[in-house]
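Quick illustration, no need to memorize.
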Amino acid sequence: MPGGAGYFGGWSGLRRFWGFLLVVLLGTAGILQILGPQILEPQTLEPQTLGPRHPPGAPSPEPVASPAIPPAPIVVHPAPPPAALRDDKPGRAVPGPIADPDPALQEFVAGSTTDALPAVAADGRKPMRHYAAGFDPTTTRPRIGVLVAGIGLSYADSKKAIADLPGGVSLAISPYTDNAEPLLASARLAGHEYLLSLPMEPQRFPLNDAGPNALMTNLSPQQNQPRLIWALSRLRGYAGVTDILGAMRGERLADVPDQMAPILAELNRRGLMYVAGPGQKAPVPQTWSKAVDLVIDDPATAADIDARLATLEQMARDRGAALGLIEAPRPVAIERLAAWTNGLSNRGLALAPVSALMLPPEDKPK
């Protein structure tokens, strides 16, 4: 451009610059006047919905409440009744060690905090099931059982019997046993169910004496009751009782119905089974029971014991079940019994604990 000062040079150029700036400002003001309401005023946004948009000018639809989602129903399945309530038979089908004493199956003797009696648990479990040895109830083989009595009267012989005999052999424990718990713990671990030997007046009393706390025929049932409670509180974890105490069987008292009725009622109330001595009546009223079919160790010689065991086998085959008795855990009897049990299965027989041989009460349908 001429002069090098440019179009806005000098005073004339300065006037031209301010004139140009004025035109720009006036044009910008006009544009803002036209567009101002649309730019400066805040826009109102319609709320977003998940459904179709409402057309302009159409009447507003009635609001639709969201459907309430009902809570998932709580289904309460009633628990099945315990096995003890479905089936009150003695015995247990599950193999393995005998259960340790359960406080739920005990009640303390009145006035004592240490002496406990067996009892039916609040859920219906009974000692004659809970403390029974395992046995398959579906077996079709003849059942043969052996009860070894006099456990606890000789500690060494008792300990050896528990260790050497298979778990299917049942034990009868004397209530006069001192420090019985170690023996009982060993018996449970080895799978032996055990019974309490209830001291009862035997034949030929006083020549045969069942001890200072025996139940006697010359006492009334009310006088015998404290003796019964004393005996029942001596041990824990037993499945039932027997009137067999070594070589004594309590026959004299067992033959008096008025004496036995309250005893059997007490056993039934406490969920216990009962094993009667040989020659006695079974089944009995009120409680599950079995009578011994044969004494095995009288006389206690190896040859006689073997012969009696063979006789017991034949009884089991003829009747479907038989129960033998060893009166005391003498070494010769335990040795012959252990050898005999080893071959039972091969001879088609099933060694059964006494709980698997019980008969229902005579007043109960089979």
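Residues 10-40 form the longest helix (31 residues).
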